[in-house]
């Protein structure tokens, strides 16, 4: 029996810079989250402002279209506003959030921050179903309503947002699009794209060997407190580490993890918005 090896994915261009603001700090505990949260509640693993500055300096010659502020919940970071302003000077910024911090006052403030420069702030929110009860079972209680409320507020301030639907129930994509669009129309929500992502991990090991024409690792890298990683799924997994900093990092990765299977089967980017 021949042994097949995992394919090698090579980064084509660094268009998306992901910043893991924190790997363990979140104010919610979604049952469907891919993060393995510690039993200890207080974990101080926030990325430093200096490390973000260094990453931006080291990638100054890269064609970065968008910087993603992600992690467990990026808006728990004590220096969130400072990092946001710093990144906006470089490119567009996408805030990947559970939406629990997005009230009227916060969104109004973020609009003022966006208006300070020429780059845009995008938002990426997430649910698991177009039905509130089924979605909250995978996320946190109240997640669905909080997301819809936040999208209404973001829409009023003319922000562009992405609603990622984690397809935990393996629904037909068109069914998801139709029902989410109906909800948007009922709530007068505009300027929101719908992105359907697979539940994870869902794949068998033989699917590791499928090659996808477009994955996040082909167009992006993540900076965290522990170095540079191929994608947000693999932060803190030694198999996804490609360097200590952007001064010297690898543009190739062996796609050998269960998460790599998810990306291969999905056949498109999961974390990037464009």
Overview of this structure, please?
By secondary structure, the chain is of the alpha/beta class. It has one domain: TIM Barrel. The chain is 28% helix and 22% strand. It has 8 helices and 12 strands. It has a 10-stranded mixed sheet. It has a two-stranded antiparallel sheet with strand order 1-12. A hairpin with a 2-residue loop joins strand 8 and strand 9. The longest helix has 14 residues.
Instruction: Report strand order across the widest sheet.
Output: 7-6-5-4-3-2-8-9-10-11
CATH architecture: Alpha-Beta Barrel
Strand content: 15-25%
| Strand count | 12
Question: How is the topology of this model organized?
Answer:
Blueprint: E1 8-10, E2 16-22, H1 49-58, E3 66-71, H2 80-88, E4 92-96, H3 104-114, E5 121-127, H4 132-138, H5 143-156, E6 160-167, H6 173-186, E7 192-198, H7 216-219, E8 220-224, E9 227-229, E10 241-245, E11 248-249, E12 252-254, H8 258-266
Parallel strand pairs: 2-3, 2-8, 3-4, 4-5, 5-6, 6-7
Antiparallel strand pairs: 1-12, 8-9, 9-10, 10-11
Helix pairs in contact: 1-2
What is the gist of this entry?
By secondary structure, the protein is an alpha/beta fold. The chain has helices at 49-58, 80-88, 104-114, 132-138, 143-156, 173-186, 216-219, 258-266; strands at residues 8-10, 16-22, 66-71, 92-96, 121-127, 160-167, 192-198, 220-224, 227-229, 241-245, 248-249, 252-254. Helix 1 runs parallel beside helix 2 (80-88).
């Amino acid at each position: 029996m021949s042994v097949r090896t995992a394919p090698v994915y090579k980064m084509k261009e660094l268009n998306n810079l992901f910043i893991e603001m924190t790997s363990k700090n979140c104010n919610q505990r979604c049952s469907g989250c891919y993060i393995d949260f510690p039993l200890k509640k207080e974990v101080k693993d926030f990325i430093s402002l200096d490390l973000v500055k260094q990453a931006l300096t080291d990638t100054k010659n890269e064609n970065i279209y968008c910087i993603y502020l992600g992690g467990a919940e990026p808006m728990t970071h004590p220096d969130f506003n400072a990092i946001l302003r710093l990144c906006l000077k470089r490119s567009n910024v996408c805030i990947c959030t559970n939406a629990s911090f997005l009230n009227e006052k916060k969104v109004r403030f973020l609009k003022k921050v966006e208006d300070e420069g020429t780059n845009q702030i995008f938002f990426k929110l997430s649910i698991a179903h177009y039905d509130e009860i089924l979605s909250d079972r995978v996320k946190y209680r109240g997640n669905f309503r909080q997301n819809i409320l936040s999208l209404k507020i973001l829409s009023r301030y003319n922000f562009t947002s992405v609603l990622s639907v984690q397809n935990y129930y393996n629904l037909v994509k068109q069914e998801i699009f139709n029902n989410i669009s109906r909800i948007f129309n009922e709530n007068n929500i505009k300027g929101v794209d719908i992105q359907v992502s697979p539940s994870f991990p869902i794949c068998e090991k033989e699917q590791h060997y499928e090659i996808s024409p477009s994955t996040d690792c082909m167009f992006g890298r993540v900076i965290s407190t522990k170095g540079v990683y191929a994608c947000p799924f693999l932060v803190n997994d030694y198999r996804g580490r490609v360097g200590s900093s952007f001064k010297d990092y690898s543009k190739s990765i062996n796609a050998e993890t269960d998460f790599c299977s998810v990306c291969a089967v999905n056949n498109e980017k999961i974390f990037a918005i464009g």
